[in-house]
Amino acid sequence: MMAGWGSHAEVRTTFQEASDALGLDVWAMVADGPAEWLNQTVNTQPAMLAADVAVWRVWQAAGGAAPALLAGHSLGEYAALVAANALGFSDAIKLVRFRAEAMQAAVPEGVGAMAAILGLDDDSVRAVCAEAASGDVVEAVNLNSPGQVVIAGNRAAVERAMVLAKARGAKRALPLPVSVPSHSTLMVPAAEKLLAHLQMIAIAPPTIPVLHNTDVHSHQDADAIRAALAKQLHTPVRWVETVRAIKAAGAGRLIECGPGKVLAGLTKRIDDSLPARALVDEASLAAALTE
Fold it and tell me: Which residues contact 109 (CB under 8 A, 6 or more apart)?
């Protein structure tokens, strides 16, 4: 993670702020791992938030255009709120660590699982989940692009759904290296803890509209934002609708800030008439600025 940005002062400063807030070396974690540690959600979430905000700050420092709209996929919603000046970065880093701890406490490691289902439409995936549940929880939780849906729930139910999805014609069913079943109803206890904790976090009206995962709407009221962040934990990430809403609002280009290219790739699958550029290194930054 972040290998292409190490020389940028904004990146190092952002990771130092994250490290100071948490009392651990976040830069060492993303640079050196080990992967098993980084894949634990209590470490993944702060690391991802720091990466997202660091690249956003690089974009700003380079003179990148101010966006008309912001959105973030799952955890990225917190980065979007930081970019919109609704959440302070230090508060956000500590908040996502709390979020991660609440999620892990709700479902002990090894009990839950997530998997990506490729090549089936949303309704077919929902039908597979309903059939595979057998008294457990397995649900479609990330509606990422046409033909790419992530499912989550109890590990055994997710494994049954993967087998059934392949039998129903899915091209692939891939387990994801995560330690909690995010956005499934197993996260309701975590959402309740998060909502209570959010009452202590200062949230300002966003200076740029942020589309939330759970309702694909922007909110100005602090309590509405708190409610959306809590609800996000146990409801699907409606990413296809989010990208289409960005296009419908008149945006002509999408810039992805973070350590990878996943969202730019999803945008191409959702609407290939909306150009998307992921900022992953100096070359991609230069290209985005020229465009």
Answer: 40, 179, 180
